[in-house]
Amino acid sequence: MSDQSRSPVHLTVLHGGDLPPGREEIDNDPRLASVTYATADQLPAALPGTHALLVWDLFSGALADAWPKADSLRWVHAATAGVDTLVFGDLADSDVTVTNSRGVFDQPIAEYVLGLVLAFAKDIPATLASQRERTWRHRETERAGGKHALVVGTGPIGRATARQLAAVGMTVEGAGRTPRSSDPDFTTVAAASLDAPEPSLAPALERADYVVVAAPLTPATRGLVDARALERMKPTARLINVARGPLVVEDDLARALAAGEIAGAALDVTETEPLPDSSPLWDTPGVIVSPHMSGDVTGWRTELTTLFRDNLDRFLSGAELRNVVDKRRGYVPGT
C-alpha cells in the first residue's frame, strides 16, 4: 500500500445514529482532509471522493446501494467480526481492501457460550421460573465436565470458545474447512459439511452433547444446521448459535424441538432479527433466545473505535492493515 499521507484522505463514517465514542480524536486528526458522518440515506451523497469508510452501522447493507458513487474508495473497515451483510459482488471483485473487528468479540462470546452451557446443565431457566412462581422444587442437574462439545467454526471465536469449554472439563471437537486429527484447541477437526465425499460432520454431531455454531456466514455454511444435521444429534443434545441466524434452518429446528429430537437450543442470532412475535421458538420449552448480544460487553464500542484508530494510523502511514478480510469468502450471494 502506498503512503496515504502524501495525498489528502477523506474519511466517511456510516452510522445509524449511534456515533463512535472518542470520535473527537478522529475528527481532529490533522492527517485527514475531512471526516463526514452519514446515515444510510446520506451515504450516496457522501461517498464521492471518500478514500476510507468506517461502517459503524453494524449490519447495514447501504454500501451496496451506494456503490456506484464510490469513485475513490480504497479501504472499508467493518465494526463487526462478520462481514456477510457488508460484502457484495462488486465490492468482492474490486481492489478495495476490507478489514473487520476480529478480536474484539472473541472472549466475550466464548464466555457467553460457557454461560449458556452452564445454564442448560444446571437448569437455570427452570430455577428462575420456579422462583417467579414462588415454588420450591428440588431436582437434580447435570455435570458440564465430561460432556462433549462440537464447535462449528475454528476461527478466533470458535477457538476462544473451545478453550473456555475445555477449562470446565469438557471434551471439545471442532468442525471447519480443513479436517485434521489434531489441533491446539480441538481434539480433532471434522469437515463442516454433510455433503463432503467422506462427511465427517455426521459422526461428530452424533458424539456431541452441545453443538456450538460459531462459523461465519458463507455460501458453504448457509443452512448448515438443517433437518439432516439435527437428526444426527442426540435427543439429549443442545444447539447454541452465536454466529449468524441463517446458518440454522429455524423451521427445521422448531420441528426437531417439538418432536424431541434434541433437548434444547440457545439462539443469540436468528434468521430474522428481531425474532418475529409469530415464531414458535419464543415459547418452545428448552429454548433460550437473546437479542444478538453475546459479544457486547461493557466498553465494546470503545474497543471497536480503538481498533479502527489503529488501522487508520496504518492506512495513513502506508503500513499493513490488521484483520484484512478474504472478500470472496465473505461474499454471500443473495444478501
From TrEMBL:
GO terms for molecular function: NAD binding; oxidoreductase activity, acting on the CH-OH group of donors, NAD or NADP as acceptor. Residues 1-24 are annotated as: Disordered. Gene3D superfamilies: NAD(P)-binding Rossmann-like Domain. Pfam families: 2-Hacid_dh_C (PF02826). Residues 114-294 form the D-isomer specific 2-hydroxyacid dehydrogenase NAD-binding domain. Keywords: NAD, Oxidoreductase. InterPro entries: D-isomer_DH_CS (IPR029753), D-isomer_DH_NAD-bd (IPR006140), NAD(P)-bd_dom_sf (IPR036291). SUPFAM superfamilies: Formate/glycerate dehydrogenase catalytic domain-like, NAD(P)-binding Rossmann-fold domains. It comes from the Bacteria. This is Phosphoglycerate dehydrogenase-like enzyme. It comes from Haloactinospora alba.
